Amino acid sequence: MSTYLPINLPSRCLVYDGVKQDDVKIRAYQGQDEVYLSQINPKNLEKNYFEVLHNLIQGVDPLKLTLGDRMYIIIWECINSYSNLIKVNTICSHCLNEEIVSVDLSNFDVTELPKDFEQPYTIDLSTGEKIRLQLLTVADDIKTEQYSVGHEDSMLYRYARSVVTDADILQTLEQFRSLPAKDFLRIVAWHEKFFHGPVMESAFTCSKCDKEDKVEVPFRFSFFFPDGSELEEFFGQGI
């Protein structure tokens, strides 16, 4: 029998109509999930991980999850299904010494949405127009993944999906193609301003110069399915 546990999402569930933090529960990965997790690659990440998500989460529509909440879930699952420790290669910014740093994922800081956050959020463009924005979701990234096949402007398409409008998405995309660069960057900046989720960096002490530094932890597919040296280190000991 699956055990579902409460989880406090970085969005505080402010963007999910009728959903409270206490409503949302999650379980760790099971063998049935590995079918999709082991096949994840850059071309099918969104679709394959959604197949897993809709079995992991209770209390909220996984298609409506913000990307910040989804990243938090990915890290939660790595900690609770595999291990909280990963190894990251980095270079000390003080002495340029190459280091292999052991990072504890459970020590990541987590940024939450402000308690007064509301969407849609209206911003002014340089053209005098106003545009209403909402946070990108799992559904948006799935649609963007599908659109990216055969199209080179998937970045524009992705942000166009965050616009709240009665217009068709292709009409909004066409508007974005002629949008002044400073206006497009203003839209990107709005999304950056309301970043929420795990802060993917960790402190370490250089073994050569003994100075404190920070390492940024890049996204890696082993978050979904450890292999190679990580598989051996986490699960192969004693076999």
Keyphrases for this structure?
alpha+beta; two-stranded antiparallel sheet; single chain; 11 strands; three-stranded antiparallel beta sheet
What's the gist of this structure?
The chain has 239 residues and is of the alpha+beta class. The chain has helices at 31-37, 45-56, 67-82, 138-147, 154-160, 169-177, 181-193, 228-235, and strands at 5-6, 25-26, 57-58, 85-91, 98-104, 110-111, 121-124, 130-133, 197-198, 201-205, 212-216. The strands form five sheets. Strands 1-2-3 form a three-stranded antiparallel sheet. Strands 4-5 form a two-stranded antiparallel ribbon.
Describe the protein in words:
This protein has helices spanning 31-37, 45-56, 67-82, 138-147, 154-160, 169-177, 181-193, 228-235; strands spanning 5-6, 25-26, 57-58, 85-91, 98-104, 110-111, 121-124, 130-133, 197-198, 201-205, 212-216. The strands form five sheets. The protein has a three-stranded antiparallel beta sheet with strand order 1-2-3. Helix content is 34%, strand content 18%. The longest helix is centred in the first third of the chain and has 16 residues, at 67-82. The protein has eight helices and eleven strands. It is of the alpha+beta class. The mean pLDDT is 92. It has two domains: 5-111 and 197-225, no CATH class; 121-193, no CATH class. Helix 2 (45-56) runs antiparallel to helix 4 (138-147). Strand 4 and strand 5 form a beta hairpin.
